[in-house]
């Protein structure tokens, strides 16, 4: 049996306000092609199918189309709900969809109930653990209010069922933060309602644990791994190699794992330097990338953003950190508040922002503008 471990699709996500819908659609087409060419039997989605609990219509249509295409390509799909998903909405018609090979695990009542798929030599048992909110569930399950406690109880139920079913191999899907893994800036904090992390040893009863929530593909242990998000969702992910894990289980139940890196990608990059450095051609490779730029010029360049947009298609962040200039103290605006004229206020603000005083032409222009404003106000 060949399995594709994915997670954190975050369908409907934007990057600093820019829609990722088209890029995601291209990547999901690549996934469908991969299922066909690599004879993938099962596609796993370990939580956060959607980015919002109430996704847009076009986002739902994309997911529906992808599910149909994956099944047509020969794979069954097992998906769990994450902390971004609405478990109720994602789980709609789950019983009906299961007959078509799409298995949605979104309720705590499904924990410990396996999805059994045949393999030469026996069956592989898949146990989906949806994102479990500790506070309401702790009372119901009689556990402490923490992620570790509720997941411990979830795995106890899984282990108990494995002893009854005796599958050839066991695969667990979970959405959590495992100790020892590396987070990024784009995951939503799930620490509310108890300790954030859980030990990887919690999943030692499984032959493979397909984790979701963290957006960097990584190995926690040989049998516990994160596939990461399909696309980067913050500039902290600029060095991620986005992809998935391909897991093979043979007729003896032996598990082997290999990585797959998506060809469809979104390049995000942080650039830092003077305006001349940034626009000098050294960063031409990032013209079509999503860029965050920090300018280090001692004097802030005029019309910086407008000029940078002539060199880069997507300037999504712009910061100024002048080098060699003494940082303004926090109380520097006291000068502005104590200024007695409109000209003084504007002059002080300009010097604070640009790091230098007005030159002769700028002083003349500001004098004229503030005087016109004063006269206009006096005539009302």
Structural class based on helices, strands and sheet pairing: alpha/beta
Poorly predicted residue ranges: 191-195, 329-339
Query: What quaternary form is this?
Result: single chain
Q: Could you say which overall geometry the principal axes of the C-alpha atoms support?
A: elongated
Q: CATH top level of the largest domain?
A: Alpha Beta
Summarize the helix and strand pattern as letters: EEEHEHEHHEEEHHEEEEEEEEEHEHEHHH
Distance between the termini: 81 Å
Domain module count: 2
The major β-sheet equals: 6 strands, mixed
CATH architectural type of the largest domain: 4-Layer Sandwich
Fill in the CATH topology of the largest domain. Answer: Purple Acid Phosphatase, chain A, domain 2
Mean pLDDT: 90
Rg, rounded, reads 27 Å
Counting H and I runs of at least 4 residues, what is the number of helices? Answer: 11
- What is the assigned CATH homologous superfamily of the largest domain? Metallo-dependent phosphatases
Helical coverage, percent range: 25-40%
Family: Belongs to the SbcD family.
Organism: Rothia endophytica
Protein name: Nuclease SbcCD subunit D
Domain Calcineurin-like phosphoesterase: 1-96
């Amino acid at each position: 049996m060949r399995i594709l471990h994915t997670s954190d699709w975050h369908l409907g996500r934007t990057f600093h306000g820019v829609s990722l819908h088209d890029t995601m659609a291209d990547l999901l087409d690549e996934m469908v092609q991969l299922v066909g060419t690599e004879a993938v039997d099962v596609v796993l989605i370990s939580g956060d199918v959607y980015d919002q609990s109430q996704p847009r219509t076009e986002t739902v249509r994309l997911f529906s189309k992808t599910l149909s295409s994956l099944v047509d390509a020969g794979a069954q799909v097992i998906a769990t709900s994450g902390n971004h998903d609405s478990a109720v909405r994602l789980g709609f018609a789950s019983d009906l969809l299961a007959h078509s090979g799409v298995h949605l695990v979104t309720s705590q009542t499904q924990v410990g109930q396996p999805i059994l798929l045949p393999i030469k030599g026996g069956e592989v048992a898949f146990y989906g653990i949806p994102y479990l909110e500790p506070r309401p569930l702790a009372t119901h399950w009689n556990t402490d209010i923490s992620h570790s406690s509720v997941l411990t109880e979830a795995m106890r139920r899984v282990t108990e069922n494995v002893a009854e079913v005796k599958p050839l191999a066991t695969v667990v899907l979970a959405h959590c933060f495992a100790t020892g893994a590396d987070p990024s800036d784009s995951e939503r904090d799930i620490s509310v309602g108890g300790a954030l992390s859980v030990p990887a040893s919690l999943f030692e009863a499984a032959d493979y644990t397909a984790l979701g929530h963290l957006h960097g593909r990584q190995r926690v242990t040989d049998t516990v791994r994160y596939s990461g998000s399909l696309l980067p969702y913050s500039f902290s992910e600029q060095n991620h190699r986005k992809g998935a894990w391909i897991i093979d289980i043979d007729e003896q139940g032996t598990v082997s794992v290999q990585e797959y890196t998506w060809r469809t990608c979104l390049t995000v990059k942080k650039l830092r330097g003077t305006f001349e450095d940034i626009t000098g051609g050294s960063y031409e490779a990032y013209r079509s990338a999503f860029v965050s730029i920090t300018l280090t010029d001692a004097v802030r360049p005029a019309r910086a953003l407008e000029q940078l947009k002539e060199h880069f298609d997507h300037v999504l962040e712009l910061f100024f950190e002048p080098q060699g200039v003494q940082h303004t103290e926090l109380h520097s605006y006291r000068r502005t508040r104590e200024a007695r004229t409109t000209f003084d206020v504007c002059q002080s603000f300009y010097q604070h922002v640009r790091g230098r005083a007005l030159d002769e032409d700028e002083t003349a222009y500001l004098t004229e503008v503030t005087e016109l404003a004063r006269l206009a106000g006096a005539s009302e």
